[in-house]
Amino acid sequence: MALVWLCLCLGLGSLLSSGCGLEFLYHNTAQVEQYLQGISKDYPAFTHLHSIGRSVEGRELWVLILGQHAREHRVGIPEFKYVGNMHGNEVVGRVLLLQLIEHLTRGYLHDLFVTRLLNSTRIHILPSMNPDGFESANRDCLYSQGRFNKNGVDLNRNFPDAFSGDNVPVREKEVVAVMEWIKNETFVLSANLHGGAVVASYAYDNSNGGQELQGDSSITPDNDVFVHLASTYSLSHGNMHKGNSCPDSKDFTNGITNGYRWYPLRGGMQDYNYVWGQCLELTLELSCCKFPPESDLPGLWEANKPALLAYMGQVHLGLKGQVLDSNGIPVQNASVEVLGRLNLCPFRTNRNGEYYRLLLPGNYTIMVTCPGHETLTETVSVPYGPDQFSALTHNFWLRKCVSSTVPGTTTCVMSRPRPTENRSAALKPSSFTALIAFTVHRLLVSLLECPHSTLVSTLVYLYALLF
C-alpha cells in the first residue's frame, strides 16, 4: 500500500494530490492555472477563483480568494491581498504564494490561527502579475531577462504617480487590470513580493521635494503604521531583521527601509495603492538571488511562512465601521480623516458606508464629513486588534444639514502633487501649525456646508483642540 501511495505522489509530478502537497518547483503558467482550479474545486466552501484580466500575450491573471465569505464582500470583513511575480524574473514570491495557498487551505478548520484568520478576513492572492515575463525569464540570479512584460515595460514604473502627474502615456494591460481590481475592492492592507534583496520597503517611493521629504526619506502621514507593518514582517522573518542578508546589498537597519531612501522610483504600485486605493502596501524583497535554484525554495518558505502569516493578521489594526445617517442608511463617499494625518486623497467610505483605518493603539480624533451632513468629530481609544482578529468597530452617525448649498467632491480622481520647489527645514510648518491649518480648513468647509447647525459643534471642537 505504501508503494502505491508513493507511486501516486511521484506520478502527479508538480501538481497537488490529497496527501503529497505542492512540490517546491517553478511551475509554469499552465501548471499554476491547473493547480488553482484544483484548489477552487476541492475547497469550494471557502475559496473562489477568478481572473482580473489578461496579460499582453493573453494569459489570465488569476486571483484566488480565501475566506469564510470568499465569493462576496461582507460588511466588517477587511480585504487583504498579496501580489507576486510583478517582475517576471523575480520568482520566489510566486512560489511562496502558491505554498501559502496550500498552507491556508490545508490548515482551515485544523490550525487555529489559519481558521480565525480566514473567518475574519477575505484574502486575495495573485501569484503572478507578469506571467509573460516569467515564461521568458532566464534562471539567473541577476540577469534581467523577463523582468518586463511582453511590451518591454517595467510594470512597477507604469502606475499613476502622485508626485509626477501623468508620468506615462500608456498603461499596460496588466497595470490596468490591477488598477480596476483595486477600484472594485476595498483593500485595506497589501504586499507586493519581489526579489534581489532581503528587506521590507514602505511608502513613499517618490517625492517632489515637498513636505513629505524629511531628510533622505519620503514620509507618509501614516509613517508610524508603515514602520510597524514593515517591522512586523522583518521581525517575524528568519533573517530579514538582521539587516544585511545579502553580501552585495546595503545594510538595512532592522531589515526595513523607506522606499525613497533606498532609491526613488516613479510610477510604483506601492504608492498608487496608498494614495488612490486607501490601501497600505509594502514591497517585500525576499531573496538575494532573483531566480534561485529550486533546492533553495524549501528554506525560503520556512523563513517567510511566519512573516507572511503575521503580516496578514495586521489587517485588523485600528478602526473599522460604517458611516450612517440618522435613519441608519449607509453614507457613501463620506471622508473619514484622522486629525493630524493629511492624506493626499482622503479616506472615503465605500458603497456600504464602510471605512477602515489602520492605526496603532492610542487615542485619535476622527473627523467625518460629507456634503449635506453635519461634520462630526469624535475621539476614539484604539486597542491592538490583531490579537482578537478584529479592529475596533466604531460607527459614526451623521445628521443631515437643514440646508446645504455647497456641492462637495466625492472622489479623488487625481491627487494634486506638492509644489516642486524644495523647502528648507526652517520654512516647513511645525506639526502644530499644520494641525491648526488643517482644522481651520475643515471648519470653513463645515460652516459653508451647514452654516447654522455646525457652528456650535465646530467651535467646541476648536476649543478642545487648543486647550
List the helices and strands and how they pair.
Elements: H1 2-11, H2 29-42, E1 47-54, E2 60-66, E3 79-84, H3 92-107, H4 112-120, E4 122-126, H5 131-136, H6 173-184, E5 187-194, E6 197-202, E7 213-214, E8 217-218, H7 223-236, E9 256-258, H8 259-262, H9 269-277, E10 280-287, H10 297-313, E11 319-325, E12 335-338, E13 354-357, E14 362-369, E15 376-382, E16 392-393, E17 396-398, H11 431-449, H12 455-466
Parallel strand pairs: 3-4, 3-5, 5-10, 6-9, 11-16, 11-17
Antiparallel strand pairs: 1-2, 2-4, 6-10, 7-8, 11-13, 12-14, 14-15
Helix pairs in contact: 3-10, 7-10
Give the low-confidence spans. Answer: 1-18, 403-411, 413-467
**C-alpha-based Rg, rounded:** 23 Å
Strand residues, percent: 15-25%
**Helical residues, percent:** 25-40%
Family: Belongs to the peptidase M14 family.
Pfam families: CarboxypepD_reg, Peptidase_M14
Cofactor: Zn(2+)
Keywords: Carboxypeptidase, Glycoprotein, Hydrolase, Metal-binding, Protease, Signal, Zinc
